[in-house]
Amino acid sequence: MAGTLGNKNFVIFKAESIDRSYPDEESINTEPTQHIRFKDDGRKPVDPKDLHHGGLYRAVAKLFMGFEHSCEEDVEYTWGMGTGQLTASNSLETSAHCVLYTCPICQELTPAKYIKIYLGYDGMASIGDEDRPDGVEFRCADSFTVLKSHYVKMKSKQKPKLTFDVASIRVANAFIHVDPLRFEATPLSSKKEELGVVGYPGDMAYRSEPGAQMFAHFKKDQSFDLSVSKENMLTYTTSTFGGQSGSPVFRRSRPGVSIGIHQGTPDGATINHACPIAGRYGVYVRSYKSALSLATRHPLKYKQPKTLEVELVRAYSQKSSFDRIPAKPELFASEILSYIQLAMKPIEKLQEELSTCTLIGPSEIQLKDKIAGAKAYLELAKLVAQQRDFPDLVVQPEAQPGADNEESEDSKRTHDTLRVDGTSQISRPRTPTHGGFKRLPRRTKATSAKEPRPRRGSTRGSQSVRRMEYKTRKDVLQESEDEY
Ligand SMILES: [Zn+2]
């Protein structure tokens, strides 16, 4: 499959947002998975400094996946643990089996509904202010993708090829305090490599929390040969356990450069395995990322029904996230703008387009719900736009931009009273406070509404779409250009 682009080879799932708290302990799946702990288990907790901003392992993510499936009584969700490797500030890779759960009782395959992603995680007590130098950053997955053939095989209970046990995950708002890892092609063979797996093993508990801490185990003199190993996988004898699936495999000599996505032990194997990267046998992660980007980055430029649908589901699922005021008003405004753009489409047109879609994803969001979601989002966006004093973000195509000149750049507001249900009274205290939000500069707003954009492609279909691409995304795009 190597290197094939486009959605026809990939299945894309939408994920929903959820709060950053530790999942309900009862529902965490602690079934041992297929990994090996060797006699000389040398796993050691990493130096906490390596988790902090700028730390060596900052880009190794702690993951919780929430699946809307359980065959146990009174348990609605099953939560799995995993490890991810951040390879761009808004995307990461892990194992496909981390985001697709096969119930051991009924064998049903369920894609994750929620994916919680933490950088710098050091036990649940570490979750707090993300801007502190040791702060844990948290995001929810916005969407994720696996190879379609892999998914189909898992779904039909065939054995999928282990080499492609890979998933790429995207977050809507990029992580800030992190230097992403890089992938490098896995060497075809080696005799004396010092290899290490770094992740969150579920058999290690810290303050009675399983999988709370990041462990690393580097082992010398590892020899492997992709041409003869099972399914051409990268093999090693470092110990791992469930929760470490998706972990990066590092060479001691090349810190920050991953050459594998830790998988575990296929049936009967007596050695640990990782999906190799690029080259003759490996996975081209970039094609996964591209598939996700096509589906999510230019939602209004590409007007295929499926893309529109993805955007609608996103709008719908993110409604809940607005009861928290985001840290970056600029990004927030961009998002709102794009949703308004979407919601401005006549409902009949949406209906027409949506009727040709098939919904892929864990949520059973029906067509009418999606339309209701779009409508509700429009209302919400209006409310938020007013609340935030972005009058020209309000959907009034005939409104005169520039009519409102009363603001000054340094005026700040508090927004403690913002509610999303639209029922409460909007109060707009003008108290300048330290923690208040600065409005967008006037020029940016005007540009987004009507003015032609200098130096940007006027061939683009929609200026508002362009507006969505804030800096971080551009950076990410660049980062992923020369990546496997
Ligand atoms: Zn089941």
Automatic annotation (TrEMBL):
Q: Zinc among the record's keywords?
A: no
Q: Where is the composition biased (Basic residues)?
A: 436-445
Q: Does the keyword GTP-binding apply?
A: no
Q: Where is this region: Disordered?
A: 398-484
| Biological process, per Gene Ontology | proteolysis
Compositionally biased spans, kind Basic and acidic residues: 410-419, 466-477
Q: Name one GO molecular function term.
A: serine-type peptidase activity
Return the InterPro entries for the record.
Glutamyl_endopeptidase, Peptidase_S1_PA, Peptidase_S1_PA_chymotrypsin, V8_ser_AS
Mind listing the UniProt keywords for this protein, alphabetically? Answer: Hydrolase, Protease, Serine protease, Signal
Q: Identify this protein by name.
A: Serine protease
